[in-house]
Every structure is written in C-alpha cells, then in structure tokens.
Design brief:
disordered C terminus; binds pyruvic acid; alpha/beta; EC 1.4.1.1; AlaDH/PNT_N; about 375 residues; binds magnesium ion; binds 1,4-dihydronicotinamide adenine dinucleotide; eight-stranded mixed sheet; Rossmann fold; 2 domains
C-alpha cells in the first residue's frame, strides 16, 4: 500500500504524522512510504532520515495526496487542502468535524474514507489517540495561562504560586479528564490553589486520591461553576462529550463578572469550546479580550512542542497505521470495533455517506 505523509500546513503546526521509525516499520512490511519534503523538519526529522529507512521524499503536497492509498496527517484538512481530498483514499487524522461545518462538507463531498483519531476507542472505552495530545495540551494550558496572567501577557499580573505572605492564584479546571488532570498537576506543581469540576463523581474521587487532597474537587452544576469561575484567576476549559460539540458552560454574562485580568484557556476549543465567547485562535495570534478577561483558544496547542508531541502522538497511532496498511480499512475496522468507531465518512459505490453520530453534532 502507498502510505503518504504531507507536511502540516496549519499555523505553527510543526508535528508530523509519521516518524522515521514508523516509516521504517511500514517499509519493512512491504509498504511504499511517500513523505513531503521537509514534513518532519519541525519535529527534528530530516528528509535524509526518512530516505535512510527506505521512504521516498517528494517536493509537493499534491504528489503525496495523489499517490497515497492511506494519507496520514495530524490536523484536519484546512481550506487550501480541501481540493486535494479524493475518493479511493483513506484519510487518518484529527478531524473534529463537530466544530467545523466547512471541513465536514469538504470531507463528505470529496468521497474520501475518513477515520478521526479523536473518535477511536480503546477496548476499555478510552480515547487512545486523543489522550497523548490531551496530556500535552493540559500541561501547556497552565504554561500558556501563566504567561498571559503576567501583566506583559495582558493579564492581571498575578504570579501563579504567590510568595510567602501573598496568596497564590486560583486555577479552576472544568473537566477532570486527561487534559484537566494534567493541567491540575502542573498548576499544583507551580503552587497555585486548584479547583477541578466534573459531572462524573467517580472521576472526582480518583482525582481526589491522585492529588492527596491538594486539589479541591467539586461536582459541576451551574451554581458551583459560576461560583468557581467568578473566584478564578485562571480558568481552563477541558470538557469533552466525545463526537459532539463542547457544551457551552460559561455564558458571557458570567465572563463580564470575572476578575479583571483573569485568563481563560479553552482547551476544548477544537470541539467548539465551553465558553459562549470562545472562538478558535492561532499560535501566531493566540489571545483576544472579552471585556477585561483574556481568552486563549489555540486549537492545535501541542503543535508548539513538536519534539514532544510528535513522538507522543505517533507512539499511539502507529499500531493503527500498521493495521490499516496491512489489512486495508474494511478488515482493520472489522477486526477492531474501537477503530471502526473512528470512521466518520466512508466511500462506497453510491458515494460518500456520513455517519449519523457526527451529523447530529454539527452545530
Ligand atoms: N486545543 C488543543 O490543542 C487540544 C484540545 N484537546 C481537547 O480537549 C478536550 C478534552 O479532552 P480530554 O481531556 O482528552 O477529554 P476527557 O474525556 O479525558 O475528559 C473530559 C471530561 O469532561 C467531563 N465533562 C463532560 N461534560 C462536562 C460538563 N458539562 N461539566 C463538567 N465536566 C464535563 C467528562 O466527565 C470528562 O471527565 C477535547 O475537546 C479535546 O479534543 C485535546 C488536545 C489538544
Ligand atoms: C487533539 C488535537 O486536535 C491536537 O492535538 O491538535
Ligand atoms: Mg486540536
């Protein structure tokens, strides 16, 4: 099978979907690997490193998309890539269709068979291809939020950990899943006072045990959410309803009453964000203000630390890539129902059909 890896084109996106080690594995199994020139450079992999393991490098994205039976990406296709989507190809990448009608239309109309990383499930119901990037984004959320909480970063000028005699910042995390608990760990490590909210009490029990009482856990409801957000110096949005748009949990009227100079980091922005005022931003221009509150809503946060993120992502994706390349998507999905859950569009004799699960969630 021809496996293609184009260079990522989203703003400041330096990850790549396959490492030279992954290419080596595929070539050893008899597959042809085609990588766009400089696709790996942002993650520290030269073209020569890919060629050394038997992959070919080609100068244009068009050449990769044209040849590949299995097209590996990191981020969803953006407008300049829509015309490259085609039938008779399997696209394996993050898609986040619930947040983008334009991308949904492009993928559906192209006739491609698309499998979304973020929808693939492990046997235990976990999200094995989302988790590594949620770990990265959760940790980065506090790092980015702490920067923007400084006066020069647009925030109130509060040091996360405080100093003896001065209160630390209050960091509120909405969602106690993978990104939320990783954010809490870094915030605790930096000396902040941390509150974490979730609907899932069993999950809060685990978090309480994990942090030995160092984090305040609160069952999420409108009243408690408002109370926590109004007292926060930093709020991290880390909720997920898999396959659906993020629920809008914090209204503009609550934001208007937040502390001046508070910072919101809405990690859940790739599913639409959990604040009414959230809209996607880029690493080039990561923040905007809503009244006196700074919003940071970068939809590809892990792209900023590609030397970490590319390894973390491809460690998780490679077994699935191998299954898709060795067996083809139909047999691979039949053998692994968790992979089949990632299938969002499929090409058949009558054209592409959209799976109903995601149709419902496009808002
Ligand atoms: N911006 C970026 O660069 C990145 C964004 N993400 C996104 O971060 C979000 C979170 O992902 P994970 O942490 O992996 O999800 P997760 O599934 O591990 O955790 C989500 C948590 O949210 C909770 N939740 C759902 N609805 C809630 C509500 N109404 N109130 C309170 N809690 C609620 C769930 O019970 C769960 O514990 C996803 O949208 C994911 O795509 C992930 C990586 C990078
Ligand atoms: C999960 C995701 O969208 C990212 O890593 O950019
Ligand atoms: Mg994203």
């Amino acid at each position: 099978m021809f496996v293609g890896v184009p260079r990522e084109v989203k703003d400041h996106e330096y990850r790549v979907a396959l490492t030279p080690a992954g290419a080596h594995e595929l070539v050893a199994r008899g597959h042809d690997v085609v990588v766009e020139t400089d696709a790996g450079i942002g993650s520290g992999f030269s073209d020569a490193a890919y060629r050394a393991v038997g992959a070919r490098t080609v100068p244009t994205a068009e050449a990769v998309w044209r040849r590949a039976d299995l097209l590996l990406k990191v981020k969803e296709p953006i407008a300049q890539e829509y015309s490259l989507l085609r039938p008779d190809q399997v696209l394996f990448t993050y898609l986040h269709l619930a947040a983008s009608q334009a991308c949904t239309d492009a993928v559906m109309n192209s006739g491609t068979t698309a499998i979304a990383y973020e929808n693939v499930r492990g046997a235990d119901g976990s999200l094995p291809l989302l988790a590594p990037m949620s770990e990265v984004a959760g940790k980065l959320a506090v790092q980015a939020g702490a920067y923007h909480l400084m006066a020069a970063g647009g925030g109130a000028g509060v040091l996360l950990g405080g100093v003896p005699g001065v209160r630390p910042a209050h960091v509120v995390v909405i969602g106690a899943g993978v990104s939320g608990t990783n954010a809490a760990a870094v915030a605790v490590g930096m000396g902040a006072r941390v509150t974490i909210l979730d609907l899932n009490i069993a999950r809060l029990r685990e978090v309480d045990a994990q942090f030995g009482g160092r984090v305040t856990t609160v069952t999420s409801n409108k009243f408690e959410l408002e109370r926590a957000v109004l007292d926060a110096d930093m709020v991290i949005g880390a909720v997920l309803v898999p396959g659906a748009k993020a629920p809008k949990l914090v209204s503009n009227s609550v934001v208007a009453r937040m502390k001046p100079g508070a910072v919101v980091v809405d990690v859940a922005i790739d599913q639409g964000g959990c604040f009414e005022a959230s809209r996607p931003t880029t690493h080039s221009d990561p923040t905007y203000r809503v009244g006196n509150v700074v919003f940071y809503c970068v939809a590809n946060m892990p792209g900023a630390v590609p030397h970490t993120s590319t390894y973390a992502l491809t460690n998780a994706t490679l077994p699935y890539v191998i299954a898709l390349a060795d067996k083809g998507w139909r047999k691979a999905c039949a053998a692994d129902p968790g992979l089949a859950l990632g299938l969002v569009t499929q090409s058949d004799a009558r054209g592409t059909r959209k799976r109903s699960r995601d149709v419902a969630s496009v808002g």
